[in-house]
What does this fold into?
Amino acid sequence: MMIENMETSPLRREVVNSDFGNMERPLIMKAEKLKTKDHHKNDNANKQVVDLLHIMEKWRDQVNEEKRQYRLEKMEMLRERLEMDKERLEMDKERLRLDREDKEERIMLMDISGMPHELQQYYRRR
It folds into this structure.
């Protein structure tokens, strides 16, 4: 077996003598370049998505703060209403007490001498 010298081989001579200007870029190199371009596009799209997520997060925080503030104001209004209801209840109790005392006083001042005996006993028991 004779190993042919690479410098004198016909394939080598053909490659050396060929015009390198007409050679196209290998497909692998083209694909890698396209991946790099796509990667830059994806980086830009990812940045936009991240920016959008930050905006949405700020908006969510603002909405949550507004909801919290609304609930606090609502609780304060309910406390005030409860306090007013308590005051009204106390006033109603006092009015009922005064009405009862007024009825009792009228009964005590009533002249029952002209009434039938059973009715006189009823008013005396009260």
Observations:
- Helices lie at 10-17, 27-109, 117-125.
- The mean pLDDT is 81.
- Residues 27-109 form the longest helix (83 residues).
- Residues 26-109 form one domain.
